[in-house]
Specification:
The structure is a single chain. This protein is of the alpha+beta class. The chain is about 35% helix and about 25% strand. The strands form 4 sheets. The chain has a 5-stranded antiparallel sheet. Strands 11-12-13-14 form a 4-stranded antiparallel sheet. Strand 8 and strand 9 form a beta hairpin. About 45% of the residues are buried.
Amino acid sequence: MRYLKPSSVEEAADLLESSQGMILAGGTDLCVYMAEGVVDPEALIDIGDLDAMRGIQAAKSDHGDVIRIGACTTIAEIATSEALPTCLRQGAQAVGSPQIRNLGTIGGNVCNASPCGDTLAPLLTLDARFVLRSSGGTRTVESGDFFTGPKQTVLGPGEILEFIEIPAASCARASAFRMIGNRKGQAISQVNAAVSLTIADGRMSDIRVAVGSVAPIPLRLTKLEGVLDGQPIDDVSLAAIREPVLEGIRPIDDVRSTATYRQEVTVSLVFDAWAECVGRASGEGECR
């Protein structure tokens, strides 16, 4: 196996195209897959030290003002950044252990594409976009179009996730994340949920609700969003959201949980995240 350490994103994309290699950033997933024999790359292309792919900053894109996150930014940095919305920070805080968060990257969590990934539902609720780099240039993919199945994405053979962009308008919404696992530390989510919204005069708008580990991909609950949009916050209850939540998910039985358990817990987690948003939705124009 060859170990390659490019000095730029462009060089990394060229190496990926010309080799049978795989991208290495934090390695918290890839090294496990290699140890288990799931993958056996001809080369490892280490992008973990590329400064151009690290950090969180305000920027302008073709879509307007954004918060741009380098794909090699660590989960620990995401978890503590006051520049980011609450739901994404909370999702990052739920990932693995301190050791994993200090080594693992946001790009790795996204590209691993596990339905239970704790940053994925938050990114969906924030209308995030993913900027993909190849030797031929870049393209931008909406987060809702990126995941195609368990551990599967639209990434082409020669593409690298370079940046994640969150519209500045999404940062102005109140947001929250909830998850449940079998234990407090280093737990893989049995279910997770994220909500973001705006409240004015006691009514909700710009609502986004996303859930993970209850379908082959993390997904938006668009029917629930439609039910809640424009409604007074006093009209929302567990009973009111139950049917649209259950219609939107497709949980299965597995070693971590049963489908029935996931159904019941999803309703509760969505409601709890919504309630936190309502409690936080005061002031305007800042990430919350």
